[in-house]
Amino acid sequence: PRGASARVRCHCLLCSLAVAAFDISLHGGQVISWRNERGEELLFTSSKAIFKPPKAMRGGIPICFPQFGKCGGLEQHGFARNKIWSIERDPPALKTDDNDGKVSVDLLLKPSDDDLKCWPHCFEFRLKVSLSIDGDLTMISRIRNINGKAFSFSIAYHTYLSVSDISEVRIEGLETLDYLDNLHQRERFTEQGDAITFETEVDRIYLSAPSVIAVLDHEKKRTFIIKKGGLPDVVVWNPWEKKAKSMADLGDDEYKQMLCVDAAAIERSITLKPGEEWTGRLELSEVASSYCSDQ
Ligand code: BG6
C-alpha cells in the first residue's frame, strides 16, 4: 500500500474466528489499533482524531523521534510521527529475533531533504511490529547512523492505553522514582505515593524506571503489562479536563478513557557514532486482573 492513509492489518492466520490483531498506519509508522482475541480494542483513539498529515492521529502509538516534547528545536515530539514510512520486505535480520508463531510487519523511515534541513543527520529507522499468538504486541526500533558524524536523539513510544475510567486506574512500578515534571519546566521531583493514581493533569517523565511496569484498570478487570528494553524512562500523561477542552482533536470528556504510558529515552539522549545502530524494544500484553492477583 502507498500513501498517507495506507494501513496494514496483521492477525493470526491459524484461526478464522475472532483473533488478536493490530493495524498500523504508514503515516507515522503509528500503530492505530491493537485488539485482543475477544476483539476488544486495547488502545485509545479519540472520536475527534484526524487521520491525515500533517499531525499524528490522537491515539494509538505515535513514535516521538528524534526529540520528545519541544526542547530540541524541532516540531513537538519530532518529525517521525508525521512522515510517511515505507514497508520493508526484506529487512536486515535482528540479532535477537524470535519470530515463533508471530505475525509482523517491517517499516522503514529515511529522512527526506526537508527533514535534513531541520535535522542534518542521515539515519535509517527500522520498526518491526509483531503480534504473538497470545496477542502480545512487540515493537522493536532500530536506528542506524549512516552519517559521517555522530548524532544524538530522544525517542518515545507514545502509547495511548484505553481505560474504563482514569479515576479507577493505577500504575505500579514507578513508586519512589525521580521524575521530571513537564508541568513545572521539567523540574525534578521524587515520587512519594505507593502507586500512581489520577485526580488531576499529569505530565511526567519517570527516570530509570524498571523494565516491567503494570497499569491496572479495576473496572475492566484488566492489567496492561509494559516491558521495555533500551528505554530507561517512562512518560505518564493525562491532560485532564481543562487541557482536554483546549485540544481540537480530543473530546471534552475523553481524557477519562485514555492514559498515555510511554517507554522512552529522554533524560539522557542516545548518541550514535557513524555506522552504529541502537535498538529499543517495547512489549505490551494484557492480562485479566484475576490472573495478576493470583501471581
Ligand atoms: C505528552 C507530553 O507526552 O504528549 C505532553 O508530555 C503533550 O506535554 C502530549 O501535551 C501530547 O502532545 P501532542 O503533540 O501529541 O498534542
UniProtKB/TrEMBL annotation:
Substrate binds at residues 58, 76, 81. It is an enzyme of class 5 (isomerase). One of its GO terms (molecular function) is glucose-6-phosphate 1-epimerase activity. It catalyses: alpha-D-glucose 6-phosphate = beta-D-glucose 6-phosphate. Its EC number is 5.1.3.15. The keyword Isomerase applies. GO terms for cellular component: cytoplasm. Keywords: Isomerase. It comes from the Eukaryota. Gene3D superfamilies: 2.70.98.10. GO terms for biological process: carbohydrate metabolic process. PANTHER family: APOSPORY-ASSOCIATED PROTEIN C-RELATED, GLUCOSE-6-PHOSPHATE 1-EPIMERASE. Belongs to the glucose-6-phosphate 1-epimerase family. This is glucose-6-phosphate 1-epimerase. It comes from Apostasia shenzhenica.
